[in-house]
């Protein structure tokens, strides 16, 4: 009888080293949203979306996991962002990192009004109605 010497399944990866929003940032974003979708207040928010994606080395940027780069959104709106990327970029819901602008510097269409998000959990209206 021949014995199998390699593992039958792949070892599970630890989530500990995984990049993402800290519990403190997640709590701050949830407080900012008051539990409602930050795109259009369509319903309960259950997803925290990175405005500037972490892929391609983005997790190395110091601002990538801060509150200004997060949107608390419903599953429907998260899907809307991912499927309509051109609209998401135009509305500030998605930030392309090929420029130098950070999430704090990029205005976002927040529940129908243009605003800037801060790393301290604030929503600051732009005042002029435009990005």
Molecular structure report:
By secondary structure, the protein is α+β, with helices and mostly antiparallel strands. It has one domain (23-125). It has three helices and five strands, in the order αββααβββ. Strand 4 (113-117) and strand 5 form a beta hairpin. It is globular and about 70 Å long. The N and C termini lie far apart (71 Å). The model is unreliable at 11-17 (pLDDT under 50).
Task: Identify the notable features of this structure and list them briefly.
alpha+beta, 131 residues, three-stranded antiparallel β-sheet, two-stranded antiparallel sheet, 3 helices, 20% helix
Write the SSE topology.
Elements: H1 23-33, E1 47-50, E2 70-73, H2 75-83, H3 85-90, E3 108-110, E4 113-117, E5 123-125
Antiparallel strand pairs: 1-2, 3-4, 4-5
Which word captures the global form? globular
* Total number of domains: 1
The strand count comes to 5
Largest sheet: 3 strands, antiparallel
Radius of gyration: 18 Å
Strand content: 5-15%
Cα end-to-end separation: 71 Å
Major β-sheet strand ordering: 3-4-5
Order of helices and strands: HEEHHEEE
Which oligomeric form is depicted?
A: single chain
Class based on secondary structure composition and strand pairing: alpha+beta
Q: What percentage of residues falls in helices of 4 or more residues?
A: 10-25%
Count of helical segments? Answer: 3
Low-confidence stretches: 11-17
Q: Calculate the mean pLDDT score and round it.
A: 85
